Amino acid sequence: MAKKNDYFGLSWIVSLILAIIPFTSWILGVITRFSEGKIVAGILRIFLGWLTWIVDLILMIVNKSIWRLLNC
User: Fold this and answer.
1) CA atoms within 13 A on the CB side of 70
2) Residues 12-32: pLDDT tens digits?
3) Is it the case that residue 37 has pLDDT exceeding 80?
């Protein structure tokens, strides 16, 4: 299975730049999870915005992927 590019299939560097901005990272993370059909994960991202922003930023640098807390 091919690796998903985060933030709507954008390149890693563009996704990293978007992940640096807290509000953009929060909104795009929520929209990305809802578009993947992960309703509960999207709702969690709404309420845990700052935590997910910090973890997303770290994981985007290290793994080139956003945090997928619930991947089922």
Assistant:
1) 16
2) 888 888 888 889 888 988 898
3) yes
Residues in the chain: 72
| Residues 18 and 10 sit within 8 Å (Cβ to Cβ) | yes
Nearest alpha-carbon partner for 8 in 27, 32, 38: 32
Tell me the torsion sign for CA atoms 47, 51, 55, 58.
positive
Give SS3 for 2. Answer: coil
Closest CA to 45 of 64, 61, 22: 22
Three-state secondary structure readout of 19-39? HHCHHHHHHHHHHHHHHCCCH
